[in-house]
Amino acid sequence: MKETEINFAIDLDENHIPEKIIWAAPDGGVVGQETKSILLSVWDHKTKEALRIDLWTKEMPVDEMKRFIHQVFISLGDTYQKATDEEDVAEEIRKFAEYFADRSGIKM
After folding, report:
1. How far apart are the first and last CA of the chain?
2. Distance (Å, rounded) from C-alpha 35 to C-alpha 57?
3. 47 and 65 in one domain?
4. Which Pfam families does the annotation name (predicted)?
5. Where is the domain boundary, 58, 73, 90?
6. What is the C-alpha to C-alpha distance for residues 26 and 108, in angstroms, rounded to an integer?
7. Using a CB cutoff of 8 Å and minimum separation of 24, what contacts does 4-13 make?
8. How far is CA 56 from the centre of its chain?
9. Which of 70, 82, 80, 77 is nearest to 106 (CA)?
10. One domain, residues 41 and 71
11. CA nearest 55: which of 10, 13, 6, 25?
12. 89-102: pLDDT as tens digits
């Protein structure tokens, strides 16, 4: 059995606001890469609920956050389809992503 790691290092200011986020996933070729935002979800099978960590740095521009969220919505549709094979529901998630892009002003 192989074990792998994904690591995040977060530099915080005096008010515990992220100033810098560095992540590494050596098996995926990522070592010490800086990012401005993390949305991490894990499933707690005992309580049957999602646990989340949502972090972004002071330097994350609002327009980039909107694009990030849009791309997460699209990815959720893809993940949902892979996990459930329910293409119709996945398509509804993708439609919402497009609605979000339009409403948030990022649609190209």
Report:
1. 45
2. 9
3. no
4. GldC-like (PF19937)
5. 58
6. 34
7. 8/38, 10/55, 13/58
8. 11
9. 70
10. no
11. 10
12. 999 999 999 999 99
The whole domain housing 69 covers: 61-108
pLDDT at position 18: 97
Burial class (CB in 10 A: 0-12, 13-18, 19+), 41: exposed
User: Domain total for the chain?
Assistant: 2
| Residue located via tokens 């990815």 | 75
Structure tokens at 64: 């980039």
Intervals of the chain under pLDDT 70: 108
Count the Cβ atoms, other than its own, within 10 Å of residue 98: 13
What pLDDT does 107 receive? 83
Does pTM surpass 0.85?
A: yes
Written as six digits, the tokens of 56 are: 């972004």
Helix (H, G, I), strand (E, B) or coil at 5: coil
